[in-house]
Amino acid sequence: MVVDNRPQTIHAKFHYGPIDMVCLADEKVDIYVMRSAPYGEWTLIDTVETDTHGRVRYTIGENKKLPLGLHPIKLVVR
Q1: pTM (2 d.p.)
Q2: How many domains does the chain have?
Q3: Containing domain of residue 44, as a range?
């Protein structure tokens, strides 16, 4: 969800299995957004790497900011 005048930050955590026993540390993750939901195409906005705890924190840059509203976001481990 995007609101006015706020940083657009994505938070995620990746781990193996249904419980958080082994995290995906230092893995590449592709971040996709669908700008014209529900029929738009997925667009790659960036690739980031998880930290040692399997976490990703990504702030969308000014040149890629999303308009106000709800936007589907998909994060895919390579």
Answers
A1: 0.85
A2: 1
A3: 9-77
Q: Which helix (H) or strand (E) holds 63?
A: none
Question: Pick from 33, 29, 34: which is nearest to 47 by CA?
Answer: 29
Bridge partners, residue 30, by sequence: 47, 76
Closest to 10 in 3D by CA, of 74, 62, 78 = 74
Q: What is the DSSP letter of 65?
A: P
Asked if residue 18 lies in contact with residue 66, where contact means CB atoms within 8 angstroms, the answer is no
Residue 2 lies in a domain: no
* Position 4 in a domain: no
Q: Could you tell me the two tokens for 44?
A: 């790659």
Per-residue pLDDT tens digits for 18-71? 776 788 999 999 999 998 878 889 999 999 999 999 999 999 988 888 888 888
66 inside domain: yes
